[in-house]
Amino acid sequence: MNIMNVQNEEQTIPHTNKTAKMRARNVNVYYGETQAIKNVSLDINPDEVTALIGPSGCGKSTFLRCLNRMNDTIPICRVTGDISLDGEDIYGKRVDVVQLRARVGMVFQKPNPFPKSIYDNVAYGPRIHGLANNNADLDEIVFTSLQKAGLWEEVKDRLDTPGTALSGGQQQRLCIARTIAVNPEVILMDEPCSALDPIATAIIEELIDELKGRYAIVIVTHSMQQAARVSQKTAFFHLGDLVEYDDTVNIFTNPREEKTKDYITGRYG
Ligand SMILES: Nc1ncnc2c1ncn2[C@@H]1O[C@H](COP(=O)(O)OP(=O)(O)OP(=O)(O)O)[C@@H](O)[C@H]1O
Mainly resides where (predicted)? Predict the structure, then answer.
């Protein structure tokens, strides 16, 4: 299935009855004079995990950061093209970026809990977005978010202890709970397991699998095995180009492009 048809601007994804959650069209990203992303068009499906793979420096993280305007925080970075969320331009003048980043949440490579209690890490977003009417509401949000992130049983008796005192894998699940707490529609994950041991990695992968029906998930990973395990769609980037985007099973068993074949068979990268 080739959905990179920029002429087709309808929201429905060809050959499916699905509507794209996010749609990128002709996206270019520059750091000063250097172009890091070249004319990339890609759809993000609502109830699937999309993996972004490719050799180091190919632009995976740069593209990911376009999806919730994290690149706005890099002064030399310039983005052109169109990116929409539910058909609405996320780079539009009236877009509230704080609101956008709640709808399109992000989990980073290194777990980065706030220097606050476990409870306050999760409650922080709902508090600033005014999502709870009272303390009981907030308790409920914290409970549900920690439960969805698969962390509740491990922390329920120590919600007052610092988030930073948890293990790396638990900290990453705390960051996922923090993201979930503000009801995102899309979750971006930038190599979320790269700082974790194999057991913590397996737990996060299981969690991604559980979350996939509820959120559109986009994950950058260096591990092709991880992409194959957790994603339904895979986008292969090379030197800023989107070389191939397809069902994950096709990318890993029957890629159309020579470059993809070379990468997945370990010839470079
Ligand atoms: N803040 C920045 N300032 C200048 N150039 C940058 C910046 N961030 C990334 N780049 C450049 O943009 C290109 C793409 O980088 P990016 O980090 O998006 O690639 P990546 O595929 O995610 O790499 P990796 O797998 O190593 O994390 C690289 O050439 C990189 O040097």
Answer: membrane
